[in-house]
Amino acid sequence: MDKPTHLIEFETMLLGRHLLGAPRSRRGGGHLDRSAYTLLSRIRMEGPMSIGQLSDAFGLDASTLNRQTAAMLRAGLAERIPDPDGGIARKFRITRAGELSLDAERARNIGGLERVMADWSPDEVAVFATYLKRLNSDIENLDGRPWPRP
Questions:
Q1: Are 102 and 42 in contact (CB under 8 A)?
Q2: Are 37 and 19 contacting, i.e. CB atoms less than 8 angstroms apart?
Q3: What does the chain look like in DSSP terms, one character per residue?
Q4: What is the reported pLDDT for 18?
Q5: Which tens digits make up the pLDDT trace of 53-89?
């Protein structure tokens, strides 16, 4: 860990583990898995999306997305609809149950972050948020897949 980038790599690995790994796998029903949380978030931001659009947005192959979207369909979190723009491909739209699940999961995540950062000053939280957004934006720009932001 002789370079700051080595430490950043290590800490982002741990961050992914803490936010997306073990705590989620131990939780009971009613919680979204990481793929559903991410897919539903993107569909909410952009509106209905086809498998092809999701593949372009996430850089994932269609078979992976078919498995992930099938699970969301079975859970009632999303539904398939005809393309509102008249295209041939059917699209996935978030359902009311999906909206409620996404909102509940986001609230749990925010609550957890607020507990973790309870001793941080508002300025520290704001600076961290700014750098985290910059890191993500720079990764997205290099990858050519910018994420829509509110």
A1: no
A2: no
A3: --SHHHHHHHHHHHHHHHHHSHHHHH--TT---HHHHHHHHHHHHH-SB-HHHHHHHHT--HHHHHHHHHHHHHTTSEEEE--TTS-SS-EEEE-HHHHHHHHHHHHHHHHHHHHHTTTS-HHHHHHHHHHHHHHHHHHHHHHT-PPP--
A4: 75
A5: 999 999 999 999 999 999 999 999 999 999 988 888 8
